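User: Can you recover a sequence for this backbone? Please restate the input before giving your answer.

Assistant: Of course. Working from this structure:
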């Protein structure tokens, strides 16, 4: 729910100035290749870790141990995404390593694209659309690869690979179908129905508990021997035990070199949680983690975001290791310091405002390593913890991943801005203010957006009331808080931006993206499934529609191409304010019908003509919509006594090599299907 990713990716793809090449001069004479590889709808990007060399030895060790802990759980994400993913990956890795036949043939090239797509997505379903990849090589060819490399796959798994009808979607969000039966994600036994899941959690959730645990967050729901549902908990000695034991081993080393006591205390609680699987421990950990703000190093590690569960209970394994970027953080701290002013001046209903906005922090960090759900595809910002009551009582930590954003920007291909901008004025504004607009949008979305507003008394949590629309609504609300204030003089007064031109640049980009550009991520004939995309189209299409009478925004065709023109930025701001008030009302009152209508009217269906046009115009630009990142390699230097004396950073440039290396070094889960 609280992970900010694609709108900023899109923002950057719109706003960054046109670069002719993806190489930039590095500090020494060799150019750093930011984007070594493209395939399908994806590009591979490398990132640098500025500041690592300035850390002291214990801090470097801390970073190293935390990244090792993170990678140790990599297999968990594969298994979570689909029950046969690990089996399939082992087979694919084995073929890639050992095939001695023709590696130049068209079939082999198609096979490698399939493999890379699977690596990129931690499984056989597209990381974003969740559709299953369909191999472009034949079953016979695949059989020949298996035979040549002694790779054995069960008939059932072969059918999964080659029959498009089997487990076609990782997540199914169609409101009139069974969300659980229709989703291939491995959080529920395949024969468990949505009604059974609802009944199970209704029976264990205590609605009157003011501090509820995150029910179901760390378990798979399975049918027990007696036919009744039960939870298989992810913990040491439980499901995913071998990988979790490795995570714990590295976290224990990390605790030894913690920068301060609050950080150490949080790490110890996380270890205890992994050992016991106790969700109360998870809450204790999150409270401790949210209070541990003093160090230069921070991390995310656990079963965190619930996007991949159609029911919103199960947390995906992820980890991000972060080093503070002091300069950028300081500027953004200004937003946090003024959180109360924003709440007081928000256009939402008085009854839905928080009297005190607590503990909002915002940091820009540089990533040193990622794994699980955060890799190779990564968020650009994160706001945690997710538990509503912990957030309101203890606050939360918000980070923007500065070096990832920088790398993405450096790797950006030319042309999108020129192709889709309405006029030269818009292009100039984007070049001048686009980057700042994107940074401020992230800051406002995370720091004041997600923190703003409160539920009315007696209203259930958004997961209970808004069901499958909850994430889309929450992201829309946070975006709208940001959009509303991006055209406020207050940001100029605070020194955060030089003029309202920055806000205009943000509006230009938001509408272009929500109404057109993001459609390049959707296959022809498909509707929008992903929460962030639904949110952005809903917001953009709603203001377009409601502003028609006053001619606020127009979409018009010139020379066969559609352009978006904003005629009145002030009125557009008012419309964002109205929609903010309404989305907050929906959340505060748990108004499911209004929420569903909003998204089904504006957010889900794709205009086929515009869609086709966007695909045709972007395909010419040859810039893939998705980016995945190669992690740096941290190498400990060890002396004769076995002690670590330093840690060096290397920047690998081969995606295939890294994927094979990870599969070998961090393959801690036994394959139950072989
Ligand atoms: Zn968000």
């Amino acid at each position: 729910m609280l992970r900010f990713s694609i709108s900023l990716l899109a923002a950057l793809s719109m706003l960054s100035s046109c670069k002719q090449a993806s190489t930039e001069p590095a500090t020494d004479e060799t150019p750093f290749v930011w984007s070594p590889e493209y395939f399908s709808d994806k590009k591979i990007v490398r990132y640098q870790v500025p500041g690592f060399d300035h850390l002291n030895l214990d801090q470097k060790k801390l970073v190293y141990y935390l990244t090792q802990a993170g990678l140790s759980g990599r297999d968990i994400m594969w298994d979570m995404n689909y029950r046969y993913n690990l089996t399939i990956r082992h087979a694919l890795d084995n073929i890639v390593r050992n095939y001695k036949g023709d590696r130049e043939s068209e079939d082999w090239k198609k096979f490698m694209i399939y493999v890379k797509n699977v690596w990129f997505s931690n499984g056989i379903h597209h990381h974003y659309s969740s559709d299953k990849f369909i191999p472009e090589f034949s079953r016979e060819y695949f059989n020949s690869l298996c035979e040549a490399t002694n790779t054995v796959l069960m008939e059932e798994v072969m059918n999964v690979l080659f029959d498009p009808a089997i487990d076609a979607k990782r997540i199914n969000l169609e409101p009139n179908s069974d969300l659980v039966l229709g989703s291939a994600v491995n959080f529920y036994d395949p024969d468990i129905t949505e009604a059974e899941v609802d009944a199970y959690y209704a029976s264990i959730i205590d609605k009157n508990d003011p501090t509820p645990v995150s029910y179901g967050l760390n378990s798979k729901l399975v049918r027990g021997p007696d036919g009744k549902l039960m939870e298989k908990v992810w913990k040491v000695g439980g499901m995913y035990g071998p990988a979790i034991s490795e995570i714990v081993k590295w976290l224990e080393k990390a605790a030894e070199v913690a920068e301060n006591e609050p950080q150490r205390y949080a790490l110890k609680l996380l270890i205890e949680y992994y050992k016991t699987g106790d969700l109360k421990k998870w809450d204790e950990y999150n409270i401790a983690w949210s209070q541990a703000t003093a160090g230069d190093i921070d991390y995310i590690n656990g079963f965190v975001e619930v996007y991949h569960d159609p029911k919103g209970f199960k947390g995906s394994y992820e980890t991000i290791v972060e080093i503070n970027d002091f300069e950028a953080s300081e500027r953004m701290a200004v937003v946090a310091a003024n959180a109360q002013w924003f709440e007081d001046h928000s256009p939402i209903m008085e009854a839905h405002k928080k009297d005190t906005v607590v503990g909002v922090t915002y940091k820009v960090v540089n990533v040193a390593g990622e794994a699980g759900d955060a890799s190779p595809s990564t968020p650009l910002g994160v706001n945690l913890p997710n538990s509503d009551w912990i957030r309101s009582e203890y606050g939360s930590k918000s980070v923007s991943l500065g070096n990832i954003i920088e790398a993405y920007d450096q790797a950006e291909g030319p042309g999108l801005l020129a192709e889709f901008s309405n006029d030269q004025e818009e292009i100039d504004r984007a070049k001048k203010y686009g980057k700042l607009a994107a940074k401020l949008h992230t800051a406002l979305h995370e720091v004041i957006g997600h923190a703003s507003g409160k539920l009315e008394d007696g209203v259930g949590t958004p997961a209970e009331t808004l069901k499958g629309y909850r994430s889309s609504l929450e992201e829309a609300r946070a975006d709208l808080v940001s959009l509303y204030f991006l055209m406020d003089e207050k940001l100029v007064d605070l020194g955060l931006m030089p003029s309202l031109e920055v806000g205009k640049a943000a509006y230009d980009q938001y509408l272009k993206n929500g109404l057109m550009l993001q459609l390049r991520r959707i296959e022809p004939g498909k509707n929008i499934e992903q929460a962030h995309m639904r949110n952005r189209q809903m917001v953009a299409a709603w203001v377009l529609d409601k502003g028609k009478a006053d001619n606020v925004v127009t979409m018009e065709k010139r020379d066969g191409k559609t352009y978006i023109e904003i005629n009145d930025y002030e009125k557009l701001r008012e419309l964002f304010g109205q929609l903010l008030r309404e989305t907050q009302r929906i959340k505060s009152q748990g108004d499911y019908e209004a929420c569903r209508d909003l998204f089904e009217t504006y957010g889900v269906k794709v205009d086929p003509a515009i869609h086709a046009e966007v695909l045709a115009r972007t395909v010419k630009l040859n810039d893939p919509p998705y980016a995945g990142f190669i992690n740096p390699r941290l190498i400990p230097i060890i002396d004769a006594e076995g002690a670590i004396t330093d840690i060096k950073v290397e920047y690998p440039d081969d995606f295939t090599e890294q994927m094979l290396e990870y599969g070998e070094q961090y393959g801690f889960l036994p394959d139950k299907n072989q």
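That completes the design. Residues 2-168+627-665 form one domain.
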